[in-house]
Write a structure and sequence with these properties.
The complex is a heterodimer of chains A (344) and B (460). Chain A is α/β, with parallel strands linked by helices. Chain A has 3 domains: 72 residues, no CATH class; 114 residues, no CATH class; 118 residues, Rossmann fold, CATH 3.40.50. Helix content of chain A is 45%, strand content 10%. Chain A is built from 16 helices and 9 strands. A 5-stranded mixed sheet of chain A has the order 1-3-2-4-5. In chain A, strands 7-6-8-9 form a 4-stranded parallel sheet, with helices on both faces. In chain A, α13 runs antiparallel to α14. The longest helix of chain A has 18 residues. The termini of chain A are far apart. In chain B, β17 and β18 form a beta hairpin. Chain B contains 15 helices and 19 strands. The radius of gyration of chain B is 22 Å and the shape is globular. Chain B has 3 domains: 88 residues, Uridine Diphospho-n-acetylenolpyruvylglucosamine Reductase, domain 2 (2-Layer Sandwich), CATH 3.30.43; 129 residues, 2-Layer Sandwich (Uridine Diphospho-n-acetylenolpyruvylglucosamine Reductase, domain 3), CATH 3.30.465; 191 residues, FAD-linked oxidases, C-terminal domain (Vanillyl-alcohol Oxidase, Chain A, domain 3), CATH 3.40.462.10. Chain B has an 8-stranded antiparallel sheet. A 5-stranded antiparallel sheet of chain B has the order 5-6-10-8-9. Helices cover 33% and strands 23% of the residues of chain B. With 460 residues, chain B is of the alpha+beta class. Chain B starts with a helix and ends in a 15-residue tail after the last helix. At the A-B interface, α7, α13 and α15 of A face α8, α9 and β15 of B.
Chain lengths: 344, 460
């Protein structure tokens, strides 16, 4: 089985300890403590990081030295037989996402449009923006990025399944896979790289694709002239270099994103996984602070790029007067494919 | 035309009587596994007086009468085991009175659950009744006559506990009111403070008369319903979890279920907790109480709450349709269960038994238990799905169900809506003087033995 490539020297010599010092869910007295805890994790010793981490993935972004602290934390948790979420929930996710031969493959040639294992992505990947690739959708556990199991500290599932997923794509003969979910793109780039898994095709980030298509459809764009708050997904932390794409899309379709406290590097998790790992108190607190912040910034819409975040927060933002919408639907609104009122 | 058919036509009119083969075929069976048996006539009365005349005629001609609601018990309770008349009550479907302040309704004996639900939603949106998880076409009278349960059973007991009065046609043809309506105009009590005669009809499966009117308690219909789904892989914890949940004393309904398919449910036990409120604040308060009371199991990682946003619409359906989905997993839409009423402390043993039976008889299982009266007992459903076009599979299911009932009796459980075979097992196990009393009551009420014969009989 593949192994995590983690450079202990890089971590030992780190002068910032940003991976933990910037953490929004665990507090440390300073560099010394944070660095010390990370050393404990690295050496397989007991650390409060192993019990307190809520699996927001953000440390993957905070570490600018490419050393994958989150994957390490998850590896060490599993080595110690620890569970983040309750054991039956962990089992449920493993069972639910196991490959059972029930997948859908469209008219795939050189390009596949990956809908992961999220039915919502199939609907989103339609219309003028996706007209040349919509028929090439693939969906099912066989094509699902298994990154979600890192939330449950079950990296063994990822290590077992990711090569199988890649092999399933390879069998399709594709040259490129457009990943409709940050998690898929993050898995095929960040996780695959961290574990030395070869990817024999080019993963395309869907928002890169959407940005290109929106440029091609520029004549059809009617600026939306709305103010939004953007809900960054946990898996975007695996691919922080892709965050600016969102800004470019917003600029193109006339969407204003006011500054707020919890954005960019300081973005808060949608908290669905926090509910499972830490209970409702922290989850409710995170969601309340997040929505309060969106409203304080004057947002009218809450824009998602992850269906899971959208499911987690839609009802709550709606109750507070914000309109939940996926970024693809926002683009469809800009080119007149969707009514503003029709978005939910 | 036979004399009996002619007499029936005189009572209910030509459109209310049938002995057409295709109709007799339909009325000879229910969706369960028991062998069909044809009636001689199907009769659909419209009034209590017509019911009375039919029963009088049946007495005169000494032919069986089987009162029927929608025939969905799955236990063959309205299969006319000895032929005769199936009395289809569905044309007696009027909602006669709603006393909103006293929170009760009076309906005719063929009124469906769906009709009452729709009526209340339209005319009395702050009131509700205890809706069973059966098709909306099932009837209220049939449900209480078999001690049915519903969404409010955890709070208020069996649906038959919610009866506030009855009108019945006795097997000898007399029309009789039971409870407070026998004294005055109000349907406020089926028994107390009088001797509770409703016990002569509730649970008798139509063997002691025909229920022509039912008074039923109504309850507050809160504006918001919500659900949480707790999951554990430790069956031994289930009774303790249920004890903690029922201690909260504020939950609408609690169901425990497990099934091997789809795969996401395999290996875990699921507790669906329903709760209601008039405001978001009330809902959130209750949600927190539910989470807090099970915190120790989350801390130990033995259990946790599932994210159910996408499942919620299905979970909150009344009645639930997931049973019908389960029935069609092996294709062919068959489904039957043995449903013993048992103490919740026996959940682990019942859970083990259902898995054992499914393996032994090579059938697909799903198991659900509903708490009754805040945890005094549960209805434990040992459920098997089958293909109605596969006789061998149906036979295996029938054997598995028989064995399940034997097991339940051995554990001190009481089979719910027992079929005629299970009734025999019950009577054999029953304390002799209790059995004597039961049979004596039946004999006295129905001296000719014409009411749903084959049921509650020692030598059927």
């Amino acid at each position: 089985m593949v192994q995590l490539k983690f450079d202990q020297k890089v971590c030992a010599s780190c002068r910032s300890a940003d991976c933990l010092l910037k953490c929004q869910y665990i507090t440390f007295a300073g560099h010394k403590e944070a660095h010390g805890e990370m050393m404990k994790v690295m050496k397989g010793k007991d650390s409060r990081v192993l019990t307190e981490c809520v699996t927001c993935y953000a440390c993957e972004e905070y570490c600018t030295r490419g050393n994958h602290p989150f994957y390490l934390i998850s590896e060490k948790r599993e080595e110690k037989g620890m569970f983040t979420a309750p054991r039956p929930i962990t089992t449920q996710w493993k069972n639910m996402t196991s490959m059972q031969g029930k997948y859908l493959v469209g008219n795939v040639k050189d390009t596949a449009l990956s809908c992961c294992y999220l039915p919502e992505l199939g609907q989103l990947g339609t219309g003028e923006i996706f007209k040349d690739v919509a028929s090439a959708q693939v969906f099912g556990a066989e094509f699902m990025c298994p990154a979600v199991h890192s939330h449950f500290a079950r990296m063994s599932v990822i290590k077992e399944r990711l090569p199988m997923v890649i092999e399933n794509y390879r069998k399709l003969g594709v040259k490129e896979v457009i990943c409709m979910h940050d998690e898929c793109y993050g898995t095929l780039t960040s996780i695959a790289s961290a574990y030395g898994i070869e990817v024999p095709f080019t993963p395309i980030y869907y928002l890169d694709f959407v940005l290109q298509r929106m440029k091609e459809l520029k004549d059809r764009i009617k600026p939306l002239n709305i103010t939004v708050a953007y809900q960054r997904s946990c898996s975007n932390r695996l691919i922080p270099d892709k965050l600016p794409v969102v800004k470019k899309i917003f600029q193109l379709i006339g969407v204003k994103v006011p500054k707020r406290k919890y954005q960019g590097e300081n973005a808060l998790c949608c908290a669905e996984i926090i509910r499972s790992v830490s209970g409702y108190k922290l989850a409710d607190d995170v969601q309340k602070r997040n929505i309060d912040d969106m409203l304080a910034a004057g947002a009218e819409y809450c824009v998602f790029n992850c269906p899971a975040c959208q499911t987690s927060l839609s009802e709550k933002v709606t109750r507070r007067g914000l309109k939940p919408v996926h970024i693809i639907d926002l683009c469809k609104m800009a080119i007149g494919e969707k009514e503003r009122e029709a978005v939910s | 035309m036979s004399d009996i058919r002619k007499s029936l036509v005189e009572i209910v009119g030509e459109r209310g009587v049938s002995d057409a083969p295709e109709e007799l075929w339909f009325y000879s069976r229910d969706p369960g596994v028991l062998t069909p048996h044809k009636p001689d006539y199907v009769v659909a009365p419209k009034t209590t007086e017509e019911v009375q005349k039919i029963v009088q005629l049946a007495n005169q001609e000494n032919i069986p009468v089987v009162p029927m609601g929608n025939g969905m018990s799955l236990a063959g309770l309205v299969i006319p085991l000895k032929g005769g008349i199936v009395l289809d009550m569905k044309r007696m479907n009027k909602i006669l009175e709603v006393n909103a302040m006293a929170r009760y309704v009076v309906v005719e004996g063929g009124t469906s659950q769906g009709a009452l639900k729709a009526y209340l939603q339209k005319h009395h949106p702050t009131l509700r009744h205890s809706i069973p998880d059966a098709p909306s076409t099932t009837t209220i009278a049939a449900n209480v006559s078999l001690h049915g349960q519903g969404r409010l059973t955890n709070q208020y007991g069996f649906n038959s506990d919610m009866v506030t009065g009855l009108e019945v046609v006795l097997p000898t043809g007399e029309i009789c009111r039971i409870g407070s309506p026998s004294i005055g105009p109000y349907w406020i009590s089926k028994g107390p403070t009088l001797p509770d005669l409703s016990g002569l009809f509730l649970g008798w499966l139509g063997c002691t008369g025909v229920i022509t009117k039912v008074g039923l308690k109504l309850y507050p219909n809160k504006k918001i319903r919500d659900a949480e789904l707790f999951v554990t892989d430790r069956v031994d914890l289930i009774p303790h979890i249920l004890y903690k949940l029922t201690h909260l004393e504020m939950l609408e309904d609690i169901n425990v279920w497990f099934q091997p398919k789809p795969l996401m449910f395999m290996g875990n036990y699921h507790i669906t907790v329903f709760f209601t409120g008039d405001t978001e604040e009330e809902i959130e308060f209750k949600r927190k109480m539910i989470w807090d009371c099970l915190q120790e199991y989350m801390d130990s990682k033995d259990g946790g709450f599932m994210s159910i946003s996408y499942m919620k619409p299905m979970l909150l359906e009344m009645p639930g349709r997931n049973i019908a989905d389960f029935a069609d997993v092996p294709k062919g839409g068959g489904f039957e269960y043995s449903g013993p009423i048992a103490p919740i402390e026996h959940f682990p043993q019942y859970a083990a038994k259902v898995v054992e039976l499914a393996a032994k008889y090579n059938v697909l299982y799903a198991s659900t238990a509903r708490l009754i009266s805040g945890g005094h007992a549960m209805m434990y459903s040992i459920s098997f799905a089958f293909n109605r076009n596969d006789k061998a599979m149906m036979e295996r299911v029938e054997k598995a169900l028989d064995e399940a009932t034997s097991f339940a009796l051995g554990m001190g459980g009481i089979p719910w809506k027992p079929n005629f075979k299970e009734q025999k097992m019950l009577l054999q196990k029953m304390e002799p003087n209790a059995r004597k009393l039961l049979l004596m009551i039946k004999k006295n009420l129905d001296p000719q033995g014409i009411m749903n014969p084959g049921n509650w009989e020692v030598n059927a």
